[in-house]
Every structure is written in C-alpha cells, then in structure tokens.
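Side project, low priority. Logging it here so it doesn't get lost.
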Amino acid sequence: MSDYRYLLFPRGNQPATGEVAELQNYAGPLLVRFAVGTERKTNSLAIAFEAEAFERALQAHAGFRALIHQWERRGATVLEHLSFVKDSQALRPVPANQNFPGIGTQFALSGSKKSASVTAQDKLIAAKELAAREALGRSLLGVQQTIQRHRSLESIAAWAPYLLIAAGSLLTIAAGTYTYQRLQDSRDERRKETIERVTNNPMQENLDAAEE
C-alpha cells in the first residue's frame, strides 16, 4: 500500500479560497504532512497527504471528511498512486462565489473571462499533447524501419561471401569449358601427324604444322 494519498482536481479547476483556509485548519491533525503540486502528465492540481495522517483525520474530524467529500462531488479524486510533482505555485484558490462548471455547487473560477481562458488553455494543451504523441509515433516508426533495413543489410552481408564463391566457381567452370572447346577445335596439326608426314619425306616437308 502507498505511503501517500493524493487528491487530484480536474484539470483547470481550483478550490475556493475558503476551502483552502479550512484545509489549513486541519494542518495539526494532518501533522503538516501535505504538499501542493501537479500531476506530471496533465498538469492538474494535486494535494499529497501522508497516508496514515490522512486516514486518521478522515475518521476523527467530520469537517475534514466533509471537505474532501465536497471536492469529490466536484470531480476531485483520491488516489493512492500519482505522478506527483511538487509545486507550491500550483495552488491558486479563487473566490467562493463562483460556480463549478456544469454543477450547481460553489467552485473555483474567477469569472467568465477566466473560464474562457482556462478552456482555451486546455484545448491548447490537448492539441500539444496530440502533436507530441503523433511525433513520438512517427519517430518510433522511423526507428523500426531503420532497424528492419539494418537487419536486411545484415542478411545480405551474411550471404555475400557464399554468393561470391558461387559466382567465382561458375566463372572458373565457364572458362575451363571455353578453353577445352578451343583446344578441341584447334586447326593446328597434331604432333603425331607431323611426325608421320616428315618421316615419309624428310627432305621436302616443312617442320612447321601444316594447316588443314
């Protein structure tokens, strides 16, 4: 089991100022063992608690339990594991008279302009995340193709010596066959025929081979 509990807020959402002050009131029961930060991937607000102190405070203090449940109704989630990045600047509480988007409870926006800004920022972040995933996919595909080409070249290189030996053998056989045929088709007089011809008329016959 994890030594920590993480309260993760929906991306772009912040607790109200009064709620943050109420959380501070429970610093004693929590043994001041909590930290503010963000979730690594989505950059959403997250509050990390020491697990034992968190569970003890939930059981012993109804107000703290109600505060956590109130945040959970607004979309916050209590998790045992999270890619947590400590960042005290991530907590930016907003006036309590603003409504949580889509829910008729009090929430963390500072007005319509800020809501539009948060929405635009979320869209920009989502677009960047999509572009990053596409770029990563293309990069991995390129690496895979390079590995396949490298393996193909290795296979060709492994067979190259055998192919060269086979080609050399074929050339040797072809050259031997050609030479043998040339010798068989030679128009020069055989040695035996030359001896017989000269023996029959040694004074008049030329010693050079006679053409047929």
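Brief comment: The beta strands are 4-8, 34-39, 45-50, 77-79, 84-86, 98-99, 106-107.
Revisit when time allows.
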